[in-house]
Amino acid sequence: MSDASLYIKNANIHMEEKTIENGGVMLEHGKITKIFVEGEKPASYPSRFKIIDGQGMHLLPGFLDGHIHGANGADVMDATEEALDTMASVLPAEGTTSFLATTITQSPENIAKALENVANYKNKDGQAEIVGVHLEGPFIEPSKKGAQPLKYIMEPNIATFDAWQKLSRNMIKTITMAPEHDPDGKFISHLAGKGINVSAGHTSANFADMKKAVSQGVRQVTHLCNAMSGIHHRDIGVVGAAFQLEELRAELIADGIHISPEMLQIIYNNVGSERLILITDAMRAKCMSPGDYELGGQPVKVTEDRAVLDDGTLAGSILKLIQGAQQMLRLDKVSIADVIEMAAVNPAKQIGVFDRKGSIAVGKDADVLLVDDKLNIHYTICRGTIAYEGGKN
Ligand SMILES: [Zn+2]
Predict the structure, then answer these.
(1) Average pLDDT for residues 367-383, to the nearest whole number?
(2) Phi, psi values for residue 206, rounded to 5°
């Protein structure tokens, strides 16, 4: 935990229910310890305090990326401490202060190694925090595999999941699976009973399957519109389920490529900020030059704006979460408060860490971003330590 103490003044403090104009926050021992309303200020500053002048900019809760495979050359499946360090140290530059280390469909041995590695990982000061694992696959529908390698796809298996969860020391918070492969709902109910965020993804479920899955405990949809049954006028599929069923929140890759800006607007208008979760689904080439990379053991070509397999299938993204937030802010009717809901509040609530993450409140972790009106990041603070200082990105 950080011993540094920070006082941020002259900022618009975006709290959950209100925004304090020209307010201040005190960050001590990694936590938010006091919030000052306009005109108020600390009686004195001990010498160890560093003061940041917010210059009328916005102070936001740090973002939580609930679906990210890699960045800056590293991937969770590398199963090394160094790979997780690389990700945790580069992500604050895009506003991410915590994330779920996300696995991909692979051999059971490789998944086990990645989980064990996360379980042994110790979060470090001045870096984003790994708050858990998102197990993407291997219990998915082959025809909707996207960039998940076909040969390792398995049928849902409670014993396998339990063994992995034990290995991860209960770090698995979210699982992406195909509900139609669990027709009696036993697997879903088992996971839901353990408090796992069960997310339907890489699935060809129809609307009736989704209604049933929700009654069994599915609460999320993985990268809405990608690798799932779309809206048909006789069966509205998984996409329609995300629109219609209030129990579901939906992940969104808002890079304008996985989903067009027009579709992002349609989704926003119909689902609303309270049920959307911005993610990156980024792979290792993020923050790197275009070139040849890999995902799940498969070759991936990366250009300026996207990552694709040999057959053209999108292979994760190279999106930075702040770019997704900026893309959403450019839509009609989206405010900074809405972006905060989609990138911080909802992802924290969805995996049960809202008691310490996801909003600016006394007692919560000091994960905050100082940004201008266009969401350019000037400071990212992770648990009370300055993790990134920049002008524009
Ligand atoms: Zn996926």
Answers:
(1) 98
(2) -95, 180
Banded pLDDT at 1 (limits 50, 70, 90): low
Start-end of H helices in 279-387: 321-329, 336-340, 346-350
Taking the C-alpha atoms of residue 288 and residue 71, their distance in angstroms, rounded to an integer, is: 8
Sorting pLDDT into bands at 50, 70 and 90, what band is 40?
Answer: confident
**Residue-level pLDDT at 49:** 86
Four-CA torsion 281, 284, 289, 291, nearest 10 degrees:
-100
Mean pLDDT of 95-122: 98
Rounded distance between C-alpha atoms, residue 190 and residue 74, angstroms: 32
* CA 232 to ligand 1 centroid distance, Å: 22
Helix axes 261-271, 321-329, angle to 10 degrees: 80
Quick check: 392 pLDDT over 50?
A: no
Tell me, yes or no, if the pTM score tops 0.90.
yes
Tell me the CA distances in angstroms from 299 to 284, 311, 319, one per residue in order: 12, 11, 19
Taking the centre of ligand 1 as the mean of its atom positions, its distance from the CA of residue 10, in whole angstroms, is: 41
For the record, the structure tokens of 218 come out as 């599915």
Pick from 89, 15, 6, 94: nearest CA to 375: 94
190 CA to centre of ligand 1 in angstroms? 22
- Round to whole Å and give the CA distance between 187 and 181: 9
Q: How far is the CA of 214 from the centre of ligand 1 (A)?
A: 20
Residues 308, 314 contacting (CB under 8 angstroms): yes
Q: What residues are labeled active site?
A: 281
Residues composing the chain: 393
- Distance in Å, CA 388 to ligand 1 centroid: 29
CA distance 351 to 372: 29
Q: Could you tell me which residues come within 8 angstroms of residue 343 by beta carbon, excluding any fewer than 6 positions away?
A: 63, 64, 95, 277, 278, 321, 324, 325
CA–CA separation, 15 and 20 (whole Å) = 8
| Tokens found for residue 211 | 């209604």
Element (H, E) at 253: strand 249-253
Q: Strands 31-36 and 5-14: what pairing?
A: unpaired
Domains of the chain, CATH where assigned? 5-60+360-389 (2.30.40.10), 61-350 (3.20.20.140)
C-alpha 233 – ligand 1 centre gap (Å): 25
